[in-house]
Amino acid sequence: MAEVVEFRVPTGSAQMLLVWGLEPEPGLEHSLFSVFSKFGPLYSVRAHRNAAVAGPGYYAIIKFYSAGDASRAQHACNGQRLFQKSPLKVCVCTKQKGFQQQVLALNSNKCQELANHYLGFNGWSSRIITLQNVSGFDGENEELGKTLQKRSMKYLCAVEVTLPNHGVRTRGVALGEADVENGEDPLKFVTASRRVQKLAVGKALSSAFQKILLIVLENGKVAVEYNSTQEELTGSFTEEELKGLVQVSEFSLEQFDLEEEVLSDLSFDDELPSREMPPN
């Protein structure tokens, strides 16, 4: 049976595994990642100390992008010792009734990791169509007879992602923004400008990936579909028209401002240091 994988933070219960019976050890999350990443790409691995009533030890929440990968990992690892002396218990998380989680876009680094896994390093490419400073377009930095202590630095970026083997091309547009102190050291100002540009590019790249659906077939092959429900205002413009639009129009920037991704939808005390991806 085919499965759709999106460039979004996984929230489905079928994509999450609960692992308990973990023994305290250095690098626990790294050990978990090494074992479970063999079944497919992981969004996150989080280990937490057991509640006092549950006795000593740890449990972990592991998020897969694919429910199929999570199911294979559960069947293969449940009851196995893996990297410790006592066997682990692994189950698929149950859905919480009446609790609806917000669907968030993956950040650009996670998008690239997912694309590299399913499409290959040479299976996709990206390029910046335009990157423009739009700091003064909405007039919020201009006040009569008044000098602002801070000014808002804004860059708007348009990025194109191409999947040559599938004949798919998508675009994303996003805003990067930060407040800068007036009279700030020129070097700090340049550093802040580069940081905002990098933020705009990353968010635009993430926006472009939101329009791509990965169809993972049973034989492991991957098909790609264009997600038209994520189409933006700029999708119908040519490249030159898009550049001109960014340069001269005073349009509302809020529609392009993607919400920042939260690192976790769970909150616990006594958490071990989190590891999204182990170092090479």
Question: What is the element layout, followed by pairings?
Answer:
Layout: E1 3-6, E2 16-22, H1 28-36, E3 42-49, E4 58-64, H2 67-77, E5 89-92, H3 108-119, E6 125-133, E7 150-163, E8 168-181, H4 186-209, E9 212-216, E10 222-226, H5 239-248
Antiparallel strand pairs: 1-9, 2-4, 2-5, 3-4, 6-7, 7-8, 9-10
Kindly describe this structure.
The chain is built from 5 helices and 10 strands. It has 280 residues and is α+β, with helices and mostly antiparallel strands. Strands 3-4-2-5 form a 4-stranded antiparallel sheet, covered by helices on one side. The chain has a 3-stranded antiparallel sheet with strand order 1-9-10, with no helix packed on it. The protein has a 3-stranded antiparallel sheet with strand order 6-7-8. The longest helix is centred in the last third of the chain and has 24 residues, at 186-209. Mean pLDDT is 80; it is low at 246-280.
The total of helices stands at 5
Q: Shape, please?
A: globular
Rounded to the nearest angstrom, the radius of gyration is 22 Å
Described by strand count, sense and barrel closure, the largest sheet is:
4 strands, antiparallel
Gap between N and C termini: 33 Å
Listing every helix as H and every strand as E from the N terminus to the C terminus, the arrangement reads EEHEEHEHEEEHEEH
Instruction: Count the beta strands.
Output: 10
Mean pLDDT: 80
Write out the strand line-up for the largest beta sheet, numbering strands in chain order: 3-4-2-5
Low-confidence segments, given as residue ranges, are 246-280
Strand content: 25-35%
